[in-house]
Design a protein that fits this description.
This protein is α/β, with parallel strands linked by helices. The chain contains 11 helices and 14 strands. A 5-stranded mixed β-sheet has the order 1-7-6-4-5, sandwiched between helices. It has a 5-stranded mixed β-sheet with strand order 8-14-13-11-12, sandwiched between helices. Strands 2-3 form a two-stranded antiparallel sheet.
């Protein structure tokens, strides 16, 4: 018995912001952003749209196409609607699933979606539940300083969702998972104020302490090393050789990071490493489900796919899925 992805869906906001906008705003050299990141475009939500709104739009098509009841909704997000209640509760309320499912949030920065997939897989593998939805949704434009060219040019807004179910197929679905943390990274990618440690005040708001702070070089090095290590560990756990990997979906943080991971793996010609960074930027917890949705028709059956992520904390992980 395996957990399989029955259906997927995504929501991407209509508003598109090109690099030209930022190059003019910050007086940047032409193609400076793309050379550093591989990003050309990003989609930004409207001010009136919340993280739960994005998630709802991603989930609706799945519900319309699948009539069987679901038992849970897990929401991976770094930009919750509010501190209380959970964004998952907001999602269920907006979908009128108030009494039919249980739900909760998972926060593990950019690795949250893979963590949520792992939890959902454990639920289904244990036999406690038969089916559920995992959604990754983030409105990063709400927590990024739009006057900082080193961060606002990187991120976009989006949501992506998977419908998971138990399958009798023994050779398809989620084969193995590996998760990890290195908490020496807590001060490398963070938001200083707004939590119980440093509550928000008017002065801290004026100091922009409610926005993301990132030490780019340290994050880059750790992302490359940890994602490469996770790929090695999950393939070893599944009993695969490196030659048996067919597809890799990395977290879409930065094209240079993905390229460096590919280099560290030896640039294997038999592996397709998928990327949507060019037209979406870093969409955090929506990154992996949106990439999967965009490329699933290009994936053949009975192939080995690795999903791998890295995020603040540091948290990281990988899943091996047999297509």
């Amino acid at each position: 018995m395996k957990t399989i992805i029955i259906d997927s869906s995504v929501y991407v906001p209509k508003q598109v912001v090109s690099n030209d906008v930022y190059e003019k705003k910050f007086n940047l050299e032409k193609n400076w952003i793309e050379k550093r990141t591989g990003i050309q475009l990003r989609h930004l939500a409207e001010e009136t749209q919340s993280t739960s709104d994005l998630a709802v739009e991603a989930i609706k098509p799945i519900l319309s196409r699948n009539s069987e009841p679901i038992e849970f909704i897990l929401c991976a997000t770094s930009t919750p609607d509010s501190l209380l209640p959970s964004t998952a509760n907001k999602i269920c309320n907006k979908l009128d699933l108030n009494h039919d499912v249980f739900c909760f949030d998972i926060m593990a920065a950019c690795s949250g979606f893979l963590y949520a997939l792992s939890v959902a897989n454990a639920f289904i593998q244990s036999g406690l539940y038969q089916s559920g939805i995992v959604v990754g949704s983030d409105k990063m434009s709400a927590i990024i300083n739009q006057e900082d060219p080193y961060t606002c040019t990187l991120f976009g807004d989006a949501a992506g969702a998977f419908l998971l179910k138990k399958s009798s197929h023994s050779d398809k679905g989620i084969i193995s998972t590996v998760l990890g943390s290195d908490s020496t990274g807590v001060d490398k990618l963070f938001i200083k104020a707004g939590g119980s440690e440093i509550p928000m005040t008017s002065q801290r708001l004026l100091n922009n302490e409610h926005y993301v702070t990132m030490l780019g070089k340290e994050v880059f090095i750790n992302a490359v090393n940890k994602m490469t290590s996770m790929i090695d560990k999950v393939t070893e756990k599944s009993g695969l050789s490196s030659k048996e990997i067919h597809y890799i979906i990395p977290h879409q943080a930065n094209q240079r990071i993905s390229d460096a991971v590919y280099d560290k793996l030896g640039r294997p010609e038999h592996v397709k490493m998928f990327s949507i960074i060019k037209n979406h930027g870093n969409i955090v917890n929506a990154s992996i489900p949106v990439t999967y949705h965009c490329y699933q028709k290009e994936m053949s059956s009975n192939k080995n796919m690795i999903m791998v992520s890295f995020g603040a904390g540091f948290n990281f992980g990988a899943l091996h899925i047999r297509t």
